[in-house]
Amino acid sequence: MLAALRSEIRKVLSLRSTYIIFGLGMLLVLLMNGWVSGYKHSGDTGNSFTAGLITSTLQGTSFLLGIIVLLQITQEYRHNTIYYTLTFARRRASVILAKVVCASLIMLGGSVLFVAVGVASGVIGVAASGDSLGAQSIPWGEILTRGGMYAWGAGMYALILGLLIRNQVGSIVVYLFGAAIAEQLLGLLLKLNAGYLPFMALEGVMMQAKTDGVFSPEKSMAIVLGWIIVAGMTAWLLFKRRDAN
Amino acid sequence: MGYNGAMIDAQNLTKRYKKKLAVDSLSFRVEPGKVTGFLGPNGSGKSTTMRLMLGLDRGAGTTLFDEKPLWEHVQPSAVVGILLEAKAFHPTRSARNHLRVLADAGGIPQARVEEVLDMVGLKDVAKKGPGKFSLGMSQRLGIAAAILGEPKYLILDEPANGLDPEGIAWLRQFIKDYADKGNAVFVSSHLLSEMAQMADDVVVIGKGKFLAEGSIKDLVAGSAHAGVFVRSTNEVKLKKAFQVSRVKFVSYDEGFKVSGKTTDEVGQLLFKAGLPVLELARQDASLEEAFLELTAGTEEFSAKGR
Asked: By CB distance 3.0 to 4.6 Å, which of A10, B129, B140, B225 could disulfide with B289?
């Protein structure tokens, strides 16, 4: 498993797209947090300012990191390197486990970096505008649990979609647009139960106020976890039983 | 080399795609110290068979590498090296990084990457993304990936595709040398003249079914195209002598080609018939003739009017 994990990490780090997407994420964070929320802030720099920066950074960057995970999975199918990956591994299970661990590292490690830069740039932006921040109240436990679940969940959704669909462009379209559009339409039918849909539930994890069709963060986390387990098991079974490519 | 358990032993490999039976109960052996060619018309199931052997395609049957399935070996990369697709790499990941990724996956020391890059002559372009490599350079990178773990067995699907004459000569020598070290190389190719120079044994399939297995020498000797060419002064008398002796013959190039007889036997027959011999020579079939004879009617795709 360790050999497969080392290989997965090197795969991600040796791809140009990883750095391009990460760079885009950094630009987005600097623009939104440093410029819009920091330098051009509308006066709301109360004690929840930093917590708000962390939340908005995670919401803005998790799906970008998810694309890195999607590419990590689908480039294997697009370029047939999956043949090597599976031949060199003794068990397909060890390959998928290595991919899950690698995807988790990308999501959690990347999120920590984005949040660090996002908070720093926001604080610097406020200072540059001539204002100063007062004492900040950061509910670390809640932020780590919900933020961690949101980022990890977005990564696992990407991994599962990549394994199920295999096609690079197709899975990115579904991940970024298809699922959201389909869930919006299904939401019209399900109404108050729309929060059971996977991407709606993921959004519910980070929602502050209660909205129609969105459950509490705790319930949303349980739903996301349920989807990851069910869809993940399906993806794993298909990965084991399908032809390599 | 005799059977001592050290070989690839494929048994009853079967693969069905919905209604089409792509590989049909295929069994064969690949022995160490030899190059075994895998021949069959386009669409006959060669690539599918190779993927089945490696467990990449799901189907029926077993393939044992030294009496064990591949996944039971502690380090599969030391057992089998593969080249299934010439362009099986990410186009922008450098050739060196491509091999480093594989080395990590196979538990192979990173120093080996530099060795194989040197062996295949890609050291100078190792920093470049292989997306812009020629087909020949891509094949060399594929060979480098295949030999990375110094495996006992190589499974190569059409490795000569896209190689220039120098590249083909290099590949031929490389494969022969690899087998001479006691390893086994199982290689498919549609370049029959190349296979004739490279392979010791062949396995021939058609429409996913087993057709023949054995040494190239035996295969061509058993071909109907093999025989004895004979020319004499009187064609009519010679024809009659053959008919009386119930010898199989066909008219061929101002003479006759006799099958199932040695040059000695044909010479004596002419002597008994009192016919002068102008020409008498053994004619071996080419691998191509033997192949076409074996696979007649099994082509998936063929041109009209052939």
From this structure: B225
A14 and B101 within 8 Å at the Cβ level: the answer is: yes
- Return the biggest CA–CA distance within chain A: 61
H or E element: which one contains B146? helix B135-147
Beta partners for B81? B154
pLDDT band at residue B4 under the 50/70/90 scheme: low
Contact (CB<8Å) B105/A3: yes
Pick from A10, A80, A86: CB nearest B101: A10
Whether A89 and B105 lie within 8 Å, measured CB to CB:
yes
Could you tell me the residue ranges of all domains in chain A?
2-241
A88/B102 CB distance under 8 A: yes
| List of chain B residues whose C-beta atoms are within 8 Å of the C-beta of residue A85 | 105
What are the angstrom distances between the C-alpha of B130 and each of A19, B9, B121? 19, 34, 14
The three-state secondary structure class of B155 is: strand
Q: Supply the ipTM of this predicted assembly.
A: 0.90
Question: What is the chain A residue with the closest CA to B77?
Answer: A88
Q: Which DSSP letter does residue B260 get?
A: S
* Residues B80, B47 contacting (CB under 8 angstroms): no
Bridging pattern class, strands B209-215 and B255-259: unpaired
B70-113: per-residue pLDDT in tens? 999 999 999 999 999 989 999 999 999 999 999 999 999 999 99
Write the pLDDT tens digit of every residue in B199-241.
999 999 988 999 989 888 888 777 767 788 899 888 888 888 8
pTM of the model: 0.86
Q: Which residues of A touch B157 (CB under 8 A)?
A: none
